[in-house]
């Protein structure tokens, strides 16, 4: 028999970016919130003087323990899915702050095109431009409607940047100036400008200057140490939930965080959520937390899995194309790139920050003509100085022996002379890309694992080749002594790291038959249940997802506050 606790106004499941924003906004509105986080407590002090690449970057200190829970993967329905036993393609964060602690800080806004992708694509190119098996759809919201929430997220996080000349219109400038421009960034920007492209400084959650946000949270500027991705920031210069929104929620006295609390079911009756059932992993005790409103604020896989295990919403069926929970899983096309080896200059590539770099959107979204191309959308092209840490970086030209005198000589020569221009391509959903519960493999509690069915399509291969050609043009203009580039995009495989940009599964829209949540991320089938995160993305854009996730979280918080007073499906 589970121990039953007193009811709270709101219970949130997962205390990362989405959970922290929801807790901050709702407690400021007077609601009592319980936050359940299955990982441990975290503070900035945990990272003081801990520039330990082996511990964090290679042994994944901040990530989920795959021996207790993982995902299973298959490239198509004809083969059996197998568990991911070690980290590769993406990294699953765990603990207070979630993946918001170990991210790089690259904070883009999706383009206006993204939110109306089906309508705008068909309007410009005709319905035949979209392949029959591609399941893109409009998101049920426009960029202009979401813009105020982008602005709120950026001001809370103190995003440093300059206006994207090819992006959506802004209501105000970035709250802090762009980060410094390094000599290598200037080399990229000069080359891109000579090609009549539109480079701009990458928007960064690594603060360029000291900043106090509208909630009164003050943070120090970035030190350019190069330890961002896979690391917590010892200075608090990188915006993460632990140093921004969570302290605001705690200060109200209305937010209770319970760590080591693994939620296993959403409880519901009569078409409404009544609370959650979780296990205290320190004691093994099962606990029931009743609540008037339940909010899923976990990672993509966790949100989908919990809905399916709780039998909420209609599971997606790829054979019929019906159902919504698990639909439109998407990833990212990260294989378009060109690398240059330079004999005429040396750069301090060991220094940097997670979002120190230059970008351009000339080949992103529908900013270029696709009439004669065999794909839609595109990708952001960028050059970054993220900091080349010593263990993971030892790039030498193709054909160099793997050991011995020549290998050592080339390693020393090019240690600070290799620059890379990379493309981050959008990922379009297809009918046969989806998430469901694995029928065979279970976690440490005996619950089924989430299963991914996904592979790259011809759309992705064409896009990767196009972005590679564009990256190569820019790199050639940068005048390297030697250049290498991607040959072709092979099948997707789970063991090579690409990005932790998984999206979809609980997608938003205006039609309950084709989407799981509305544009406030409220479940169509259960009005007091909200599902917040990149699980709501109906496809993935040519960007990092966090900026758009943050904007949707602020809008959802507004919707939950309204629902708490009025009830009903929000419009």
UniProtKB/TrEMBL annotation:
Coiled coil: none annotated. SUPFAM superfamilies: FAD/NAD(P)-binding domain (SSF51905). InterPro entries: FAD/NAD-bd_sf, GMC_OxRtase_C. The keyword Protein biosynthesis does not apply. GO terms for molecular function: oxidoreductase activity, acting on CH-OH group of donors. Keywords: FAD, Flavoprotein, Oxidoreductase. Residues 435-552 form the Glucose-methanol-choline oxidoreductase C-terminal domain. Pfam families: GMC_oxred_C (PF05199). Belongs to the GMC oxidoreductase family. This is GMC family oxidoreductase.
């Amino acid at each position: 028999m589970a121990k039953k606790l007193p009811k709270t106004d709101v219970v949130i499941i997962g205390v990362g970016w989405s959970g922290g924003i929801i807790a901050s906004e709702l407690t400021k509105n007077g609601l009592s919130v319980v936050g359940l986080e299955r990982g441990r407590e975290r503070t900035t002090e945990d990272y003081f003087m801990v520039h330990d690449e082996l511990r964090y970057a290679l042994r994944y200190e901040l990530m989920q323990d795959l021996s207790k829970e993982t995902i299973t993967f298959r490239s198509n329905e004809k083969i059996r899915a197998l568990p991911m036993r070690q980290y590769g393609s993406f990294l699953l964060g765990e603990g207070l702050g979630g993946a918001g602690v170990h991210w790089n800080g690259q904070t883009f806004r999706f383009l206006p095109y993204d939110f109306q992708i089906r309508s705008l694509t068909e309007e410009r190119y005709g319905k035949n431009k979209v392949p029959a098996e591609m399941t893109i759809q409009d998101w049920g919201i426009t960029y202009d409607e979401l813009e105020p929430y982008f602005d709120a997220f950026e001001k809370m996080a103190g995003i440093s940047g300059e206006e994207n000349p090819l992006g959506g219109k802004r209501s105000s400038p970035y709250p802090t100036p762009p980060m410094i421009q390094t000599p290598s960034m200037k080399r990229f920007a000069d080359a891109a400008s000579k090609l009549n492209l539109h480079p701009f400084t990458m928007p960064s959650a690594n603060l360029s200057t000291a900043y106090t946000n509208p909630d009164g949270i003050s943070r120090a500027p970035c030190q350019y140490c190069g330890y961002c991705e896979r690391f917590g920031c010892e200075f608090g210069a990188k915006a993460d939930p632990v140093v921004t929104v969570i302290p605001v929620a705690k200060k109200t006295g209305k937010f209770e965080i319970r760590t080591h609390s693994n939620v296993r079911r959403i409880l519901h009756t009569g078409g409404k959520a009544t609370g959650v059932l979780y296990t205290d992993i320190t004691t093994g005790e099962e606990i029931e937390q009743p609540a008037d409103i339940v909010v899923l604020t976990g990672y993509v896989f966790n949100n989908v899995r919990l809905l399916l295990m709780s039998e909420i919403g209609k599971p997606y069926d790829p054979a019929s194309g019906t159902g919504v929970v698990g639909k439109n899983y998407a990833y990212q096309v990260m294989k378009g790139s060109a690398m240059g080896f330079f004999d005429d200059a040396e750069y301090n590539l060991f220094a940097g920050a997670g979002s120190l770099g230059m970008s351009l959107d000339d080949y992103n979204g529908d900013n270029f003509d696709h009439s004669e191309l065999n794909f839609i959308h595109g990708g952001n092209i960028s050059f970054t100085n993220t900091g080349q840490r010593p263990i993971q970086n030892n790039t030498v030209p193709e054909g160099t022996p793997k050991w011995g005198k020549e290998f050592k000589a080339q390693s020393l020569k090019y240690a600070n002379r290799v620059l890379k221009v990379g493309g981050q391509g959008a990922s379009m959903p297809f009918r046969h890309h989806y998430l469901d519960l694995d029928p065979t493999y279970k976690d440490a509690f005996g619950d089924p694992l989430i299963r991914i069915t996904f592979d790259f399509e011809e759309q992705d291969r064409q896009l990767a080749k196009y972005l590679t050609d564009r990256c190569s043009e820019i790199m050639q203009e940068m005048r390297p002594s030697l250049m290498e580039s991607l040959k072709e995009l092979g099948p997707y495989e789970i063991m090579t790291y690409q990005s932790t940009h998984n999206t979809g599964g609980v997608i938003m829209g205006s039609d309950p038959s084709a989407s799981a949540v509305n544009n406030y991320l409220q479940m169509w089938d259960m009005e007091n249940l909200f599902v917040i995160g990149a699980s709501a993305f109906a496809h993935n854009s040519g960007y990092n997802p966090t900026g758009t996730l943050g904007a949707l979280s602020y809008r959802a918080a507004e919707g939950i506050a309204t629902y708490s007073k009025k009830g009903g499906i929000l419009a």
